[in-house]
């Protein structure tokens, strides 16, 4: 068997999505004389924003915080559509030549660390062959979504349905819903995005949910942002808008956590104004959990509520008994007619792209490792990863992680270190990595690394607490062990 061809880089990024392009930019700007490459499993830049193509796909965070700190968002809308976000990421890669460092259709399958050489050997599948790249440091920016398939529960009688069943993750480009009855199953961000957008062509859309989610509305265009952009220089305006939006998001989360009953009342009061008078909020808009125990769903310009008022979208809260030839039979006995059923039933998560890890010939079980500052792993040298905030913009955390990693690499260069490894503190208790009650998290969290019960092993979900620690705080920690070449 022929050994795979290899080449070596100083810094290897896994994934050419929002995080990966950002990580490459930070590294290139800080270390212009060093080499890097990006391995991307698909054939395009953009990650999630290139994969998902369903009608109405858009950001669920404002673009002034989802956008990069180094590249001001210039679009008209703060809640932007997927194509605009994809173009923004592609432009960020092209502007500084990062796109020339991407190796497409390279799916990373395994990573092997050698302490004798102080380097990783990263194996990727490309055109059916094994390609190996060695790297001094690896950063995984693969996110946590499984890209080849979404989550669909087993529905009794599915094979008897005469119409089309579609998961949003694999939306057909040629689908024509004109004059058709559509049932969207789900209550999360994807479902509430799809329903009003599909209603523009469909005869009628029914949103079928087993239980409600908290849904709020934001203006697609931020009026304060537009004023600031009109009167301030572009970079200063972007910084001011970013700070304003981060502050609002963090304050909203903290209020929901500390005063859930009060916030439930405030959300309900707003929804009463957006929905028809006398609408059954108790059944359709009152979740069993407190606000922000799961991610709060945002809609732009009341589009979901306006569709309900117009009668083009109906909300049904019930459980599915079975699929029938003409639609869905519910446990209540009601029948929903459908020509097309959309299963917006969630995503499958995967830890670090499902790649396997070895350190000096020893297999690493990710669920046995502990995350340090939410971005490095105990017992895994010269490796970092990006998992963004679940209660705010993903990119806010990504930018901070990149800042910290660059400062760490600079410290290693200055002191001629070739290796850094985190040693786990046995006195620190274990907790789930993602402390989030959403179904898609609960299904997969046992395969993820753990977090600790105390800092720096505990994952923070507060930008203003992470900012001083990751961007300006000390780089070296007692848990770190450095070694010279």
From TrEMBL:
Cofactor(s) for this UniProt protein: FAD
InterPro entries, sorted: FAD-binding_MO (IPR051820), FAD/NAD-bd_sf (IPR036188), Flavin_mOase-like (IPR020946)
Keywords assigned: FAD, Flavoprotein, Monooxygenase, NADP, Oxidoreductase
Any GO molecular function: flavin adenine dinucleotide binding
Pfam family, one: FMO-like
Coiled-coil annotated spans: none
Gene3D superfamilies for this protein: FAD/NAD(P)-binding domain
Annotated PANTHER family: MONOOXYGENASE, PUTATIVE (AFU_ORTHOLOGUE AFUA_8G02570)-RELATED
Record family assignment: Belongs to the FAD-binding monooxygenase family.
Protein name, entry field: Flavin-binding monooxygenase
Native organism: Rhodococcoides trifolii
């Amino acid at each position: 068997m022929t050994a795979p061809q290899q080449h070596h880089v100083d810094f290897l990024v896994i994934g050419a999505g929002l995080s990966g392009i950002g990580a490459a930019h930070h590294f290139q700007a800080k270390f212009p004389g060093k080499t890097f490459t990006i391995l991307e499993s698909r054939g395009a830049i953009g990650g999630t924003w290139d994969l998902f193509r369903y009608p109405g796909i858009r950001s669920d965070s404002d673009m002034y915080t989802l956008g990069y700190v180094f590249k001001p968002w210039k679009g008209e809308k703060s809640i932007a559509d997927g194509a605009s976000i994809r173009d923004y990421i592609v432009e960020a890669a092209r502007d500084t030549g990062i796109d020339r460092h991407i190796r497409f259709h390279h799916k990373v399958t395994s990573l092997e660390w050698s302490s004798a050489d102080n380097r990783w050997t990263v194996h990727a599948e490309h055109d059916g062959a094994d390609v190996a790249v060695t790297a001094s440091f690896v950063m995984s920016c693969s996110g946590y979504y499984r890209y080849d398939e979404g989550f669909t529960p087993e529905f009794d009688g599915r094979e008897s349905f005469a119409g089309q069943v579609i998961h949003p993750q694999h939306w057909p480009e040629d689908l024509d819903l004109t004059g058709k009855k559509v049932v969207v199953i789900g209550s999360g961000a994807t479902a509430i995005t799809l329903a009003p957008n599909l209603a523009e062509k469909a005869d009628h859309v029914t949103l079928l949910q087993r239980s409600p989610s908290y849904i709020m509305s934001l203006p697609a265009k931020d009026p304060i942002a537009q004023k600031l952009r009109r009167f301030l220089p572009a970079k200063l305006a972007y910084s001011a808008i970013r700070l304003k939006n981060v502050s609002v998001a963090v304050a909203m989360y903290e209020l929901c956590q500390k005063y859930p009953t009060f916030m439930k009342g405030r959300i309900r009061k707003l929804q009463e104004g957006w929905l028809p008078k006398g609408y059954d909020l108790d059944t359709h808009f009152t979740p069993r959990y407190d606000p922000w125990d799961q991610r709060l769903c945002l809609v732009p310009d009341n589009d979901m509520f306006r569709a309900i008022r117009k009668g083009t979208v109906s909300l049904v809260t019930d459980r599915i008994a079975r699929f029938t030839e003409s639609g869905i039979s519910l446990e209540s006995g009601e029948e929903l007619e459908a020509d097309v059923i959309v299963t917006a039933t969630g995503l499958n998560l995967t830890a670090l792209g499902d790649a396997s890890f070895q350190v000096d010939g020893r297999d690493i079980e990710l669920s046995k490792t502990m995350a340090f500052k939410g971005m490095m792993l105990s017992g895994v040298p010269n490796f970092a990863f990006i998992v963004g905030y679940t209660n705010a913009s993903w990119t806010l955390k990504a930018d901070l992680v990149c800042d910290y990693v660059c400062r760490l690499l600079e410290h290693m260069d200055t002191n001629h270190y070739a290796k850094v490894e985190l040693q786990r503190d046995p006195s620190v208790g274990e907790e789930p990595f993602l402390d989030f009650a959403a179904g898609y998290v609960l299904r997969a969290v046992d395969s993820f690394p753990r977090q600790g019960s105390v800092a720096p092993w505990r994952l923070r979900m507060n930008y203003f607490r992470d900012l001083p620690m990751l961007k300006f705080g000390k780089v070296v920690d007692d848990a770190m062990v450095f070694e010279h070449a």
